[in-house]
Each structure stands twice: as structure tokens, then as C-alpha cells.
Amino acid sequence: MINHIDRASPRDWFAVAALGVGSFSIVTAELAPIGLLSLIAGDLGVTTATAGLAVTLYAWIAVAAALASAVWLGAAPRRPMLVGLMMILGGSGVCAGFAESFSWLMGARILGALAHGAFWAMIGTLGAQLVPARQVGVATSIIFGGVSVASVLGVPLASFIGLEHGWRTAFLAIGVLSVLVAAALRMTVPDVSGSGRVGVRSLWRILAIPAFQRIFVATLFAITAHFIAFTYIEPFLSSEIGLAAGWVAPLLFLFGLAGVAANFLTGALIDTRLKTVVTMALLSACISLGALALVGDVLGLVGTAMALVLWGGAFAAILVGLQTWVLKEAGEDALQASAIYVALFNGSIGFGAAIGSTLLSLTGLSGMFLIAAALVVIALIATAALREPDAVPAE
Question: With 0-12 CB in 10 A as exposed, 13-18 as middle and 19+ as buried, what is 245?
Fold first, then answer.
């Protein structure tokens, strides 16, 4: 995808910001049930494990939707497509909020998952079409900053709303936010054409390129490692570290703030020092997870907070860095490469939760965090041989 833009207008940057809020909406919608499973299960008369399908099945459907969107929706004009997908996500939230049975809820979730995968695959390439090539990293940091914020703050926020006003209200709130984002996208996103249908063969062609293989391996292992550990962060802090229950929420909030701060920092560096950003982020994630696993019981409150800040910032930088690397490496193949990245990311969420539940009984919480650190090392090795993508000089 060749970018011939010389200067982005204020409207273009408002569009980038709206896409960032949109990414927050879709990932919050995906992960919201994590903090509401007991409430959903009790209200709809199913087991907690069954209610968990609202997360795992959603993630796997999003994988298929991301890949399908690259094959069949590549030629669609971006603005109406994004507005329509966000309206579908809004409808999914509203339908979930009024669900009278678990099958109704799952139908609403499946609808949202289809929109989720396609929306994320589309916005992965749109930043490169809205701003000059030299600012793609900044735009990507803003757009996918919503993902990292949702990953660490969206679940606690949805849980808080659910506990105070009922789980249905949490889904309704996500639905309303999605509709508002759709309106913002309608007003700010310019008429951007699609890149044309790409076909299944082009996906296989991307997967055959060694540079992409390394990026995708890094994505698979880094994101899986994150969700192995982060899914169980609350019991880890209380049981393994021994912190009082009142400290868990503030520490998770600090974790999220570190991710937001890291987005600003990586946005300033990522267009010229992408490999350095990704390498340091992976190394930081490995160190923080390893420290929590090996010496977490002696870190104390301040040491634990420092480790969580390092981890939260590293995760945000990894997410934005790898997505940006895909876009810079792909060029004209940005849509299909981004679709594969999105599929791997969402698949890794499911892998992380599933592997974590298995490891919990075998290794305990500390062992699980140590395995997560080892998986990040594999991601670090995968990116080590990659060259720095060509930087675009500032004017």
C-alpha cells in the first residue's frame, strides 16, 4: 500500500483518534465477560465454564472474520464499511444487554465477533492511508493504543459497571459507545478506497515470507504469554505476592496507565527506531514476568508496582510495535498481512487463557508466570534476525 500523502489534515487526525476509541470498544467488548462470568452464569442458569464460551468462542470467530475480510472485503470503501461494522458491534452489545437466554447472548456475541475481526483488520491498514508515511508509527500508536487500554482497563471498567448496575448494563454501555464511534467515523474518515480483493493465495504468499514468519511467531508467543499471566493477575497478586485485596485494583490501574504512557513514548520513536522499541519491550516484559515469578514474594508493594509498570508499558509497546512492523514490511500487501496479524492476536488470547487454565493445576501461579517469561524469550529470538524497516525521513 503506497502512501502518497504529504500532510495530514486535522480531520485525518480526528479520524485516527476515532479509530483509537473504536479499537478500545471492540477489545472491551471481546474481554468484558471475563469480569462478569459469575453474574452471567447465575442470571442465565449456566455454569461458569459454559459462560466462558462468551470469550473463547468470540475470539476464535474473530480470527476467521479477520482472514475472511481480507479475502472478500478488500475492495470495499473504508468509511461505509467501518461505520457499518461498528454499528453491528453496537447492535451486538444492545442485543446482549437484553438477552433472555444464554443462546441469545451467544448469538449476539457471534454477531459482534464477526464485526470485530473485520474492523480490526481494516483499521490496521487505514492509519497508513490517512497520514504521511513518516507518521505511520504515530498513527498506529494512537489507533492501537485503544487495544492496550482496553486490555488492562476495559475489563475492570465493565466489571465495575456490572457489579453496580448489572452485567446487562455493561453490555449496553459498550453498545452505545460503539454507536457513538460509528457516528464519529462517519464524520471524520475520508473517502478511502479499498485495495481490491486479495484472495486466499495472497495470504499463503505472506506466510511464506521469512520476515513475516518471524513477526508472526513473535506475535503468537508474546501475546499468548501475556494472556497466560494477565488472566490470572488478580489471584497472583493476592495469593502469591500476598497483597491486600484493596491494592489489586490500584495496581491494575497503574498497569494500564503505564501502557498509555508507553503508547506516547513509542509513538515518538517507532518510525525511526522500530526494532529497538520492540526488542526493549520484549526484554522488559521478560524481566518483569521473570521477577514476579522468581522473587515476587519479596518484592513488596513498591517492587511489585515497578514490575507491573514495566510489564504494562512493555505490552503496549509490543502490540503497537509488531502491528507497525507488519505494515512497514507489507507495503502493498498491508491488508492481508494485517489480517493475519489480527487473527494471530485474537487466537493468542484464546491460547493464553486455555494454556493458563491447564498450567494452573500443574505449575501453580508462579510457575505459570515463569513459563510466560520463557515464551517471551522465544518471541525475542524470533525478532533478533529481523532488519530495521526502512525509515521515512522527516521533511
Answer: exposed
Q: How far apart are CA 371 and CA 363, in angstroms?
A: 9
Domain that holds residue 146: 7-197
**245 and 137 in a common domain:** no
Neighbours of 10 (CB within 10 A): 8
Judgement on whether residues 213 and 331 belong to the same structural domain of the protein? yes
3-state class (DSSP) for residue 267: helix
pLDDT digits (tens, 9 = 90+) for 210-222: 999 999 999 999 9
Among all chains, which residue has been given the C-alpha cell 497483597? 243
Of 66-75, 200-209, 369-378, minimum mean pLDDT range: 66-75
Which residues have C-beta within 8 Å of that of residue 274, sequence separation ≥ 6?
137, 321, 324, 325, 328, 388, 389
CA-wise closest residue to 240 among 158, 296, 317: 296
Within a domain: 2: no
From the list 371, 374, 375, 240, the residue with the least C-alpha distance to 299 is 240
Give pLDDT, residue 380: 95
Distance between CA 256 and CA 261 in Å, rounded?
9
**How many CA atoms are closer than 13 Å to the CA of 158, on its beta-carbon side?**
34
Domain boundary among 149, 176, 197: 197
* Residue 110 and residue 57 in contact, taking contact as beta carbons nearer than 8 Å: yes
